[in-house]
Write a structure and sequence with these properties.
Blueprint (H helix, E strand, L loop, with lengths): L20 E5 L4 H10 L4 E6 L10 E4 L2 H8 L3 H6 L6 E5 L5 E5 L1 H5 L7 E4 H12 L4 E4 L3 E5 L5 E5 L4 E4 L1 E4 L6 H7 L6 E14 L7 E7 L2 E7 L5 E9 L11 H11 L7 H7 L7 E8 L5 E2 L2 E3 L2 H4 L8 H16 L4 H20 L14 H14 L24
Parallel strand pairs: 1-2, 1-11, 2-7, 4-13, 11-18
Antiparallel strand pairs: 3-6, 4-5, 8-9, 9-10, 12-15, 12-16, 13-14, 14-15, 17-18
Helix pairs in contact: 1-5, 1-10, 2-10, 10-11
């Protein structure tokens, strides 16, 4: 770095401001993306992550619309295009496993063929980590225990016992953000339950599937097998409707498996084998389908980004894209502004984009899980019509924000 790179702020009277120190909690997508842009504006960035190592693997995710421009500006678009999965079709099945319709995935997701990117989550997180690991301090196997903003900065106590002071802290720690709870209070006040619970896990590909998704539905229940390539394993997905969020009965792997088995009792097709495979899955992830909606994304010198601030749910297919765009906008708004002004600009410039994408509930993927016989029949008719029509060119919400031009200092 040159001496200029060591500074942020103005140089009034021949004096320079010291580098702002920022702590980011979370090393998945939003966290490293934000670290990338802040380091290029001269910030000293530390990322704390409760996992022992960088997270890799995981289910496929999508990068669409404005988020494509973010990764292009990061220089990683070619790498992600090389990792593109290219799912070729989704086949929908009835209760007995009979074919309802086979359609192009973009027709359902509102994506743009040839432009949008679908990659394994680990391919994106690996690319982000590689882009920042030499410029950012990472604290793995640790987390934030307490925050104190009573002084001139944010005094942070770590779970591992360490204590440090930062100019700013950003929570990029997901839907169930611990940072959000510390500053804004319990999750329940921001949690918007969307009426479903789900489980995802990996199982053996004994079905001969390749580059495709098979989805079975009955009212209130869905099961899908997602074959990324010609691989030995497939991603299994089980989704079921539940009127009230099972906060108390969905805790721990044993209770989760029991609830899922009960929800899918008597199901047909390959579902019994999928439920049985839960017992052997070492990567089972269960949760409620929900969004996070907050009246503000910052409090003092602590801000939130990505799912911690505005999780849209997988029903929109926009979680990753919102994380990437939100990280870029937060860094851009902090450039050449004090923290309070930067955080205010972040909210005012980004909220409409977030609201539009959270509002995609009820469109595309969100119509895939009807809860009544009548709604399922209507959905099947819609799918049959889609199978005979060319895919539309994306959704306006995906590209509803034009990124500001912020030239990097480095």
């Amino acid at each position: 770095m040159t001496p200029t790179d060591q500074l942020t702020g103005s140089q009034a009277g021949g004096r320079t401001s010291p580098r702002r120190k920022v702590l980011i909690s979370g090393a998945s997508i939003a966290g490293p993306a934000l670290a990338y842009w802040l380091t290029r504006r001269g910030y000293a960035v530390t990322v704390v992550e409760k996992a022992a190592t960088p997270r890799s693997g995981g289910y496929p995710i999508d990068v669409r619309g404005t988020a494509l421009e973010v990764v292009r500006r990061m220089g990683m678009l070619p790498r992600l295009r090389d990792a593109h999965i290219d799912t070729r079709r989704i086949t929908f099945l009835d209760a007995d496993g009979g074919k309802v319709a086979a359609i192009n995935p973009h027709a359902v997701a509102g994506g743009v063929a040839g432009e949008d990117i679908e990659v394994r989550r680990g391919d994106l997180t690996d690319a982000l980590y590689a882009a920042v690991r030499d410029d950012v301090e990472f604290l793995f196997d640790d987390s934030i225990e307490a925050l104190d903003q009573s002084g001139h900065g944010v005094d942070v106590t770590f779970r591992g016992g360490g204590r440090r002071t930062f100019d700013m802290v950003v929570g990029a720690d997901g839907l169930h953000s611990a940072t959000r709870k510390l500053v804004f209070g319990p999750e329940e006040q921001f949690h918007r339950y969307l009426g479903y619970c789900f489980a995802v896990f990996t199982m053996r590909n004994t079905f001969g599937l390749s580059h495709e998704i098979m989805m079975w539905n009955t009212p209130g229940r869905a099961a899908a097998l997602y074959a990324v390539e010609d691989t030995a394993d497939v991603h299994a997905f089980l989704n079921f409707a539940r009127p009230e969020p099972p906060f108390d009965t969905f805790q721990g792997p044993g209770a989760q498996r029991e609830l899922i088995a009960s929800a899918f009792a008597g199901a047909g097709w390959e579902v019994p084998g999928m439920v049985a495979a839960l017992d052997d899955a070492d990567d089972l992830f269960c949760d409620m389908v929900s969004q996070i909606r907050m009246p503000r994304w910052s409090g003092g010198r602590v801000a939130l980004v990505g799912d911690a601030a505005y999780a849209p749910s997988f029903l929109t297919g926009q979680g990753t894209s919102l994380a990437l765009v939100g990280a870029y906008m937060l860094a851009a708004c902090l450039a050449d502004r004090d923290i309070a002004s930067g955080l205010a600009a972040y909210e005012s410039s980004t909220r409409a984009f977030v609201t539009a994408n959270q509002g995609q509930i009820g469109k595309g993927e969100a119509t895939l899980f009807p809860t009544t016989t009548r709604a399922l029949a209507r959905r099947n008719d819609m799918l049959r019509n889609l199978s005979t029509m060319p895919a539309k060119r994306g959704r306006g919400a995906h590209s509803a924000l034009t990124l500001p031009e912020v030239m990097p200092m480095r």
